[in-house]
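FORM 7B: Structural annotation worksheet

SECTION A. Query
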Amino acid sequence: MESRSSAYRPELSAVRSAQAAVRLGTLAWILAGLIGVPVLVVRDAGASWWLLTCAIGVVSGLFGLLYLRAKARYPEGL
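SECTION B. Predicted structure
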């Protein structure tokens, strides 16, 4: 019987693929925020929640990248 610590561990290539996906998603949130600033300023739309959503997406992506970097560095577990 396998111990709980020998549970499934993703291969390094899977972690690197996840890092690429998170980078792409974070970049998309950055671009959406950069596009949103002038739109909100010009239209005075009052939809500042939209920029907050972009900021939360960027911060979440950065935390995800930090986690995946640690996962790649210590594949035996965090």
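SECTION C. Observations
Residues 26-78 form one domain. The chain is about 75% helix and 0% strand.

SECTION D. Sign-off
Analyst initials: ____
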